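User: Sequence in, structure out. Go.
Assistant: Echoing your sequence, followed by the structure tokens.
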Amino acid sequence: MYAKAITICVLFFGSSLAAAEKITYEDHIKEIFQNSCSNCHKPSKKKGGLNLMIYSDVLKGGSSGKCVESGDADSLLVKCVTHEEEPIMPPKGPKLSNKKLI
């Protein structure tokens, strides 16, 4: 249903969207999290126990458990940022733009 959900999931796990360029957390995803999520999900705050600024912490998840799983386009994080599931993220703003998700 959501091509963007599949794409964001692929991005989280460093897989390649195109054979020419490998998508990585540090080079492509971290900036999106810094701009959209870091007010609440950073090492010094970790709202919900979730830190999105360090890749290994993203994989660990937060107080509700894992928010991403390798190869899972229906991960909690994807559903939250696409406003398909509660808690919607960001909580007081629009969902992340398709440009950020694709």
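User: And one key feature?
Assistant: Residues 67 and 77 are 5 Å apart (CA to CA).
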